[in-house]
Amino acid sequence: MVTVPLPEAFTESILTDSPFGEQLLRALNEEPPTSVRVNPRKKQAFHAEGLDPVPWCKDAYYLPKRPNFTLDPLFHAGVYYPQEAASMVIYSAIKALDLPRGCLALDACAAPGGKTLAMMDAMPEYSACIANEIHPHRSNVLSENVTKWGLDNVAVTNNDTSAFIPLETFFDLVLIDAPCSGEGMFRKDHNARSEWSPNSVKLNAERQTVIINNLMQCVKPGGYLMYSTCTFNRHENEARIQGLLNTGKFELFPWEAPSTCTPGRNKIGHYFLQGKNRSEGLFVCILRRNGDLTEPFNFPKAGPIDNFTGIEFTTAKHHELIQQGHTAILRSAILGQYLGRITHPLRYVKTGVSTAETTLKGWAPLHDLAMLGSQIPAIACSQQEALMYLRGETFPIPSYVAGFYTLHYQGVPLGFIKHLGHRFNNLYPKNWRIRMQLR
Predict the structure, then answer these.
(1) What pLDDT score does 318 carry?
(2) DSSP secondary-structure letter at 38?
(3) Are 214 and 272 contacting, i.e. CB atoms less than 8 angstroms apart?
């Protein structure tokens, strides 16, 4: 039910300064769809039978109605991620780029993380990413989602984009999903309608210009800058891209956007529009920096890691295990090599998979390792037991040899427990626990 009317100034702008028209305005008062993207490493636990696929993204589906995700253990296990369908186009867009193996991406405004996850599932083999978010709380949410997805090639940082200015020509790909006035969310989020004003458009355009100016030099010659917003006006979209083109350092990169998309003004970028796409509103544009990629990547030698923790886990090639304070960090060696090249301080939230920590009795596994998968023995549980575990509770389980186990639901790990022989300690992270009451 529509409770907040569309702002009059916005309605006028759509009718007079856009190619979108009344069809979009009508669609903004319809019900939004619900969509999810499935983790390719855990998709055996997701049942997609009968679901409509999202056309522009692999392993993505529309749901017939929006469930209570909090009460689904598979959501907490990182089997899928609820994500607005238009934003999933990052997957097919990156597949269209000519990126080398082992490349490095920057997701500059990354929280809550859906685009980071889609980007890393689309990137070439052995690639790595720095996912940044300026707001501390949102950077923790970003880190949580990266952890649940089981990624060992992503570092999470909490910085203003100005912190990346020294990293000139450092990234093969820079993604700017810019903060914006949110016009594309007017159907899904009526608070966005209340907060919108012509002045908010102006302020966001100014902020976007600062972000672009901070990051444009970070793109390698021959690399790519991908810019997106969830808004419709030219000031935050085409005008920002035109500013980049005016520098003479970038050119529009032609890629085959979904056929249902609408070309932007002056053929700059593409729009996902309610009423034409089964999604919310999105503007996306890809630019290529002039020149050729000049620095071939030297892959670290593949070999067994020195597992000083004594905890068994499996890794792919090109990984490293390091100790940071009392924590053992597992990560792709290529990510480690890139981070080693950064000589100025960044605020890191996550530099890899926090595998284990030292205790008085030796190394103990940490939750990140369970999300990555390990060779630690597993104990299966029911849905009700899984929800109790996710609330931080315990329940009766069969007697086992004392030690650490992963608790599995439908074949995927939820996290660790420490079995004491006749009961267990719940090791699920306290700040991630379900707080709502279970029936």
Answers:
(1) 85
(2) E
(3) no
Radius of gyration of the chain, Cα coordinates, nearest whole angstrom: 23
- State mean pLDDT over 237-257: 98
372 vs 118, more confident: 118
Q: What is the pLDDT of residues 351-404, one digit of tens each?
A: 999 999 999 989 999 999 999 876 788 999 999 999 999 999 999 998 888 999
**230 belongs to the catalytic site:** yes
Q: Angle 114-122/136-148 helices, nearest 10 degrees?
A: 40
- With a CB cutoff of 8 Å and minimum separation 6, the contacts of 425 are 394, 417, 418
- The helix-helix angle for 198-215 and 238-246 (nearest 10°) equals 30
Q: How far is CA 272 from the centre of its chain?
A: 19
Q: Name all domains of the chain by residue range, CATH numbers in brackets.
A: 8-289 (3.40.50.150), 376-439 (3.10.450.720)
Convert the pLDDT of each residue in 68-97 to its tens digit.
999 999 999 999 999 999 999 999 999 999
Signed CA dihedral, 214, 184, 266, 291: sign only: positive
Percent of the chain with pLDDT over 90: 88
Q: Are 183 and 9 in contact (CB under 8 A)?
A: no
Q: How many CB atoms lie within 10 A of CB 269?
A: 25
Indicate the SS3 state at residue 61. strand
Q: How confident is the model at residue 439 (pLDDT cuts 50, 70, 90)?
A: low
Taking phi first (over 0 means left), then psi (-120 to 50 degrees means alpha), and beta for anything else, what does residue 201 get? alpha
Cα separation, 241 vs 312, whole angstroms: 49
Give one word for 123, left, alpha or beta, with left for phi > 0 and alpha for psi -120 to 50: beta
What span, in angstroms and rounded, lies between the C-alpha atoms of 227 and 323?
A: 36
Residue with tokens 């609820």: 82
Residue type present at position 108: A
Q: Which one, of 56, 96, 396, lies nearest residue 258 by Cα?
A: 56
Catalytic: which of 230, 261, 285, 381? 230
